Amino acid sequence: MLGLKKQLSVKSIIGPGMQVNGPVTFQDGLQIDGTVLGEVRAAADQPSLLVITETGTVHGAISADHVVIGGAVNGPVRAGELLELQAKARVEGDVQYKALEMQQGAIIAGQLRPQLTPRATGGGPTEPALEPLSVLQDPAFADSDLTPFVKRDTRLF
Question: Which of 28, 66, 72, 130 has the CA that lies 20 to 30 A from 45?
Fold first, then answer.
């Protein structure tokens, strides 16, 4: 499981029909079938799993290594390793992740921000650099907040 040393299991459950006013901090694994009003955060010193089922709802920021969302989240999401969005997932907030699995039907109303790991500088092939396109700018972008980019391949044949 993407960098996690051992398979994690759910050890705590917030049951259906239950409402918890946060912040909530947990260790190992937490499953939310009810509602949490406030932040849900895993302890930082060990791997963690957070599962929000189809009946689960969180109104606040969530943060864990492995996050599985089947229900609704209203707030930012940070998955240190893997974010799984199931078909009925609804996220309103920015999403930060290292790896993402998203089923058809899942909805995100926010920005997707992958956590990029720096590449080793060891003589292997590198990705061509992105640089702003300044000489060939399209006038259509003149009044836009978008900055066009172009890939420049510096490799020779």
Answer: 72
- Residue 18 CB neighbour total at 10 angstroms: 12
For residue 75, give the nearest of 33, 36, 48 by alpha carbon: 36
**Distances in Å between the alpha carbon of 77 and those of 26, 137, 154?**
16, 35, 37
Q: What is the tens place of the pLDDT at every residue in 80-131?
A: 999 999 999 999 999 999 999 999 999 999 999 998 866 555 544 444 444 4
Residue position matching structure tokens 């492995």: 66
- In whole angstroms, how large is the CA radius of gyration of the chain? 20
What are 26's two structure tokens? 């947990």
Angle ∠(52,56,58) on CA atoms, nearest 5: 85
